[in-house]
Amino acid sequence: MSERRTKPKAHQRTLTLATVGQLAGGQAEAIINAALRAALRDTEDRGADKKPRKVTIELELRKLGESISATAKAKTTLPPYLTDPTIGELTMNDRGQPEMSFSPVAPENPHQPAVPGMDD
User: Fold this and answer.
1) Among 19, 95, 109, 111, which residue has the least CB neighbours within 10 Å?
2) Does 21 reside within a domain?
3) What is the dihedral of CA 96, 100, 101, 106, to 10 degrees?
């Protein structure tokens, strides 16, 4: 090891869990909190689906000559938005191509016609 290591200066912080939020002038704390808020908001809005929301915090450390670079990334994984199923009939168009035909007023019943006099 030919590199000269020194003790931290008085104004410097040591990278630990407690100081991660201070990276990039506080941007790390901001992006981590934004990811947490997004996961919590989605849990409140759609949490009845009982699927987990995940927040992943990743720190990337790279050597730059005699220095080191630390980059923080926060990622939120939310379940996909999903509709209720619409049931349709397999039909053929005039060119013999298969299609799905469904009732927009009764997604569970492709045979349900619209109420007369009501606009689609």
Assistant:
1) 95
2) yes
3) 170
Domain that holds residue 44: 17-77
Q: Are 59 and 20 in contact (CB under 8 A)?
A: yes
- For the segment 3-45, what is each residue's pLDDT rounded down to a tens digit? 677 888 889 999 999 999 999 999 999 999 999 999 999 999 9
The whole-number average pLDDT for the span 71-85 is: 93
Is residue 1 in a domain?
no
Where do we find the tokens 């909190």? Answer: 33
The number of residues making up the chain comes to 120
Task: Return the H-helix or E-strand segment holding 46.
Answer: helix 27-46
Q: Tell me the C-alpha distance between 120 and 117, whole Å.
A: 9
Residue with tokens 């619209």: 114
